[in-house]
Fold this protein.
Amino acid sequence: MNIVTACSTKNTVDEVVKDINEQLVLFDAKLVLYFASSKFEPDYISRKMQESFPGSAVFGCSTAGEIITGKMLDDSVVAMAFNAEAINDVKIEVVEDLKGDGGVKKAFASFEKHFGTSLSEMDSQKYVGIILVDGLSGAEEGLIETIGDLTNVVFIGGSAGDDLKFTDTHLYANGKSYSNSAILALLKPGTEFTFIKTQSFCDLGKTLEVTKADEVKRIVYEFNGKPAAVAYAEAVGTSVEDAAKRFMHNPVGLLVEDEPYVRSPQQIKENGSMAFYCGVGEGMELTLLESTNIIEDTRNAIKQAVEELGKVSAIINFNCILRTLELKQKNLTKEYGEVFSAIPTVGFSTYGEQYIGHINQTATMLVFK
Amino acid sequence: MAGRIRRMIDSVIQQRAAGNPMLEKILKTKMILKGVNPNKFTLESDDDPVVLEKLERMLRELK
């Protein structure tokens, strides 16, 4: 086994780190990726995890719930360790300046120095990036757009959570914790890999064109020339007063070749505008979506990845907290966990997902052969 | 002036994807998420400076 997982549901940082270390003690880890409940003190868990694996690259973030092979968990720490055959090389950079593109360019310069190859020329089938972002920074769109402009290498990941407290989220690297930052990790896997982007929605064929918006603030003022809440309520067939009840079941999406990039409404403001969980630009034609079956769709997406690669040795799953909440509401977390029972898996419930862009109500997954 | 956006879309895809269909799809997705839908621009489309700047950035950053 070149990729293994570990998890702990113990109560203190010392106990958890000891527990995970004992599960991985015989494994020669080049990289340890971990996701931790926000109940654990951020600086301390980061320091202890790094000290526990002194010869390894170690990074991770806080969560709104954790995922490990076969199970969805809360209040735990989950980890995935890769040996040098699974990950030939890795470089981790922390971007502390999320405004502008200077932070990303500095990180990329470090990657280029480390790997000896320009990011603009790097082979996107040989390298892959993982991105973890402060889930309360609101900076994901600019960050992933800058990355996408600079390289063809795909960066996939999620926004850190804090167990629905919405006060602060944390990123872990270099034995320290960071907020209002992002971690970029550039990996050179020793095996093939692919991506899953799965969301469980169908297109209802109703278009909402964004006619007035503040993309940076993630607010839509008007759809189709009407106050956003009015147009949305009309589209779903309800009153403005009841429209917010439909958000989880009926988000909107930007269709790319019939595949939605989901934009989830967050709130109706007093002036009839709508706040979203990601940026929506003027001129975008969004379509009204309706939720389908998360379990079945996820199972099919994994089956497709297995068919594409021939076999799958590990999955890193960045699963939207809104999907987790829906699964909890429907009492389906056990079934969702079981979808991953045959494949070593690590993941967490995110405050946003990244794959090509910043998206909502989606699971983005990095899948290794 | 018209048509610069269409030509620039084709240029971005040609230079960055170099014939790789998977990269072409990813680039088109990146454009749509930026608010530039490649399917909506022809050689007759007006040269909107905001759209041109977004595309120029995609070319410039690779140089």
